[in-house]
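Hey,

The postdoc asked me to send both predictions to you directly instead of through the lab channel. I've kept everything plain text so nothing gets mangled by the mail client. Protein one:
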Amino acid sequence: MRGTGMIDAVGIDLVDIARIEKIRSKWKMKFLKRVYSDGEIAYCEGRAAPAQHYAARFAVKEAFLKCLGIGIGGGVWLRDIEVVHDVGGKPALKINGTAGDCARSKELNRTHVSISHTDRSATAVVITERA
């Protein structure tokens, strides 16, 4: 098996895609720029059903906040939690800014991400490890 860290936390979240689409339609780029990185916006907008991908990324951000033991409004910008993909397409997290500061203060050194969605909902699981 790979890795020598200890599991610190597990976070899970489920997001209604229609809710994200409704917010996206109402607030447009104001919402997107507040929640998603430029890379995430480009990725989602390049897909046939952008709302599914935005909802999945929102679920990842919420699941990661649960791992940190905080919620939205807990001092971490959602934009600082970025979903990226490795060369094989596997989702991963890139943690910046206040989210990075919080993760470092908890001595988190590794994350694992799993994302899934249907036409109605998106879900994500995040596992954090400590050295």
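Protein two:
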Amino acid sequence: MTEDAFKAKLDFVRAEAKAAGRNPDAITFSSTIFMPMIADAESAAHGFATNMGGVFGLSAEQVMRMPMALIGTPAQCIAELERREREWGTRHYILSGFGGPALAERFAREVAAKIKKTK
């Protein structure tokens, strides 16, 4: 569930692709976001991450970087997804049904529509 564990899995896939004679840079990675939370204030996002961290034994900062979570204000979520693309190579996301249609619509309008595409 941690960023380090996720990155290790990505490294494994890239190494296996290379070993098979394939270009690891040609792989498009995706991730499912099971815990999306778009907050109106950074303090609310941090509080949510702190509570989730208690469940997983992680700090709020670790939770906010978990591949299965996306927690923050719209600006924080945009920055985090752009960071994930830069550092992990993930460019596709599956958003779980957590939060219902209202959250999905807000995500589409305030986050996904404003992400700078690098490729």
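Summary for protein two, as requested: The chain has one domain: 3-12+22-114.

Thanks,
C.
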